Amino acid sequence: MTSLSPGSADALLFDLGRVVLDIDFSKAIACWAGHAGCQPEAIVARYVRDEAYRLHEVGKISDEDYFQSLRSSLGIDISDAQFLEGWNAIFAGEMPDIAELLPRAAKQMPLYVFSNTNRPHVDYFSKEYAGVLGHFRELYLSSSIGLRKPDAEAFDHVVTSIGVPASRIVFFDDLAENVEGARARGLTAVHVTSPSDVGNALRALGI
Predict the structure, then answer these.
(1) Which of 21, 30, 166, 188 has a CA-to-CA distance to 46 between 20 and 30 Å?
(2) Is the pLDDT of residue 1 over 60?
(3) How are beta strands 91-94 and 21-23 bridged, if at all?
(4) Which residues contact 48 (CB under 8 A, 6 or more apart)?
(5) CA–CA gap between residue 91 and residue 10 (Å, rounded)
(6) Chain segment 151-205, per-residue pLDDT in tens
(7) Cα–Cα distance, 143 to 66 (Å, whole number)
(8) d(CA 115, CA 13)
(9) How far is CA 35 from its chain centroid?
């Protein structure tokens, strides 16, 4: 279990999806199925986060190339604009309580984001959620830095950039593999499995 106590952190680092922003991927599937005239289940059965997905997240392939790969893997012939519509439909609002927790935490120490994401999502959430994202001093986004969680190099890059010891950074993420990757690089990490986990951790830190 992660040990948190008042005074044990100099910076807080947050994943975005399911930590700050709620994500519902079924909205993308439903949108694409509607455009393609097929059942959502047919797309769910074929969708995987493959090599093209990973390359898209580190900015190595274009949106058009990624959507072309989806056309092939999903077996649906819809336009780039239709893919984009579904791709951006996954954002389902802010996570409960986060809008109250972040400003409170930001009064005590700097807040940062570290997210595996891609250019169209960045374009979308930067506008739609500008208010809540304004509490963060810096956003480390995989598509911008060319590195993604849970790779050691990615965590080392972010820790160096933040400029405080890894052990003094508390990292929040909903995926166990990212939490493990962060701990392996010396960060203190909180596995977020319910909306109350962030608030509980901040209270343990005296925030």
Answers:
(1) 21
(2) no
(3) antiparallel
(4) 73
(5) 30
(6) 999 999 999 999 999 999 999 999 999 999 999 999 999 999 998 999 999 999 9
(7) 13
(8) 10
(9) 27
CA–CA dist 58, 147 (Å, integer): 6
d(CA 148, CA 117): 9
Cα dihedral 54, 139, 183, 171, rounded to 10, equals: -130
Question: How many Å apart are CA 169 and CA 178, to the nearest integer?
Answer: 14
pLDDT score recorded for residue 62: 97
Q: What is the mean pLDDT of the chain?
A: 97
Taking CA atoms, 90 is separated from 125, 144, 199, 201, 205, in Å, by: 11, 21, 24, 27, 32
In b/e form, how buried is each residue of 183-199, taking b as 16+ CB within 10 angstroms? bebebbbbbbeeeeebb
Phi, psi of 81 (to 5 degrees): -65, -40
State the residue for tokens 């700050």: 20
Buried b (16+ CB within 10 A) or exposed e, 7-35: eebebbbbbbbbbbbbbeeebbbebbbeb
Query: Residue 195 corresponds to which tokens in the numbers above?
Result: 């909306």
Cα radius of gyration (the chain) = 18
